[in-house]
Amino acid sequence: MNETDIGAYGVPLAMLAGAIRVSTPFLFVSLGECLTEKSGRINLGLEGTLVFGAMSGYAISYLTGSPWLGVLAAGISGCFFGAIHGYICKLPKVNDIAIGIAMMLFGTGLAFFFGKPFIQPQAPHLPSISLGFWSDLPQVQSALSINPLFLVGIVLAVFMWWAFKNTRWGLIIRMTGDSAPAALAMGYSVDWVRFLATTVGGFFAGVGGAFLSLYYPGAWSEGLSSGQGLMAVALVIFARWNPLACFGAALLFGAAGALGPALQSVGITQGYYFFNAAPYLLTLFIMIASVSPKRSLKGAPGELSITK
Amino acid sequence: MSALAQPNAPRRAVELETVAMTKIFGSLVALEDVSIHVRPGTLHALLGENGAGKSTLVKCIMGFYQPTRGEVKIDGKPAVIATPRDAHAHGIGMVYQHFTLVPSLTAAENLVISRAHPPAVIDWKKEIKGLEAFLDTMPFKVPLTVPVSNLSAGEKQKLEILKQLYLDQRFLILDEPTSVLTPGEADEVLGLLRGMTEAGDLTILMISHKFREVSAYADDVTVLRRGRMIGGGKVGELSVADMSHMMIGDTKIRERAARKTFTDRPVVLEIAGLFAEDDGGIPAVKGVNLKIHGGEIVGIAGVSGNGQSTLIEVLSGQREPTEGQLFIDGADFQPVRQQMAKFKVFGLPEEPLKNAAVPRMTVAENIAFRTFDEPPIASRFGFMSPKPMRKQARDLIASYRVKTPSTEEPIENLSGGNVQRAILARELSGEVEVLIVANPCFGLDFASVSEIRSQIMDQRNRGAAVLLVSEDLDEILELADRVAVMSGGEIHYVRPIAEADRASVGMAMSGH
Asked: Do A142 and A17 touch, CB atoms closer than 8 A?
């Protein structure tokens, strides 16, 4: 045994590292979804936005050589998808969930179509910040090598939590999400607020996608997203529409996603695929545990089509 | 009118007048030549049945509708009100019957966001201070930092009124402001508002159908019927009989069936130790025990939201109780379809279009819900034959006078009273042992109300055990043999009707 071998402690450490690494796309998509749902609309299309964001971010990073331009491009393409969703939902008798599913398929399909030429080439990656310099252990150093987007995500979560309470826009979004008649009575355009919230939510999801292709796993391929965009919807419900809780839930999902690789790193390879399914099992479990046929969801915006 | 506008008229209260207000929707004349004059610093009542044009009139004043003819004068000067915003600019605010507060926001958040120009970033310390200073000048208090969904109906109503005053609206239109309040709360709110009008701070136009409140608190009254102004004047100069005659005109009201007296009827329905939770998982019904005899109407009074709807949902099988049992004739009763048919349990839940009908199915189908799986509608192999179904519907439509274009009309196209009659026809056409009724007359006109109450009384006289839940205390005092009061999910007060008086029932409703 050499001194850098930390044995079974490697599993929680690897899970922590994984949580930080894997949670970022969860965090961005769930914050985007949280914003959209707070305004009273569900955007199931964020999975498509995520995949398209991953593709466009990678493509722009490859073409311009700047990964940050890639992130911006991913966000803008996310805005575009959010805006389409928001616009279509403004039309009468349109169901936001059906449009969301259509947008999900449209986004992934479009990403595969435009993304074919970018599967092989190597695009420049996002840099990371080493916060583990104080430790001699390479495991700790690698665990604490953190992508700036993760930190941006934390700041964003805290900002959204604060803004929902302390800004005019926060209150307007919560108002349209909870009682459209009240918002209308005060002269706010419910459709316009929701359109903006969906568009900005799409931006966040696009950025989350860019993280997938530009940092971890770090390449564009068609199997890049494994349903993070959809799991984020469950995550928002689990987090009870609270951006801070979204952060915690994203870490939890990230840790669950890191369970398989973490066990593999200490030599446990049995049931690798089973442990890899942990996030999906967690989603299922959370949905069962957090809902009940007898009562409605606490904290759910009153205008959501799932709570009506 | 110039005689009324005194030179030293109070500064803040607004004077409002409508001149020959007319509103025509297509071929329907909703409002015809209505001229009312609301003196500044008074409480003016607007009386009328459903569909009499009260809402059309106030919506024209508020700028939701543009009148076909006529105009609004404010403080004697013609005013152009094209949108609700214009009305607000003139100091006219409206408190709606349904709340316009946002449930998940606190009272303070609701007040701040209702301002025309809320700050981009809200300094809560400063705002709370300002709001507290504002509340100090107001006659009623509301907790500021609690989400509105946790406030009682009375507090919400007060907050709605406070919101208008906070926005500096000095002409308030109140749409049935006391419908969700206990008699005590209603007296408190109306008394305080009356105080503000007398002090000249406020002018109020109140839509109401409660003569008691109009007589006690209003200065003037205007009565509308079928879109026309029928009469009005100073409240002191009009009797309740005058007002009610103006309101309903010469419509024939069905005579109420006389109350048959029974002695020693057995207990039919027994509710034993019933507990149930509401949608939020919070206990809403807490240990209700009640026995209802055959040939008896037990009326459960109470302000809405005290567990009555949850109780009705349990009794009609819409909700599982957490504890407790139901018995009919001493046998265990589960509210499922087979047992309801076996024990002859029928019901008329509140909002029948939502709770007892499928809105987009036809009248005939809705009427057949209790019988579609039995002959003659169902054949031996489980196929339904539409002919006997339509025949049954035609017969019941005729005998219960349901106004519908045909048996094949979706039931949602019928008016409220006719939906209620169609459901009543379905529920009461057979033999009824137990009848569970909730707010049966909510929002109906006089003729329908009278009809439906007679039907309920008929069932009682035939020996059915009737449980009547109503938010309308007058309805309970009129129909019930025994009065029970539900408050906070519990029933403490049960009295024979002869021993129940309005004051003690009112006390029990507010939980004392």
From this structure: yes
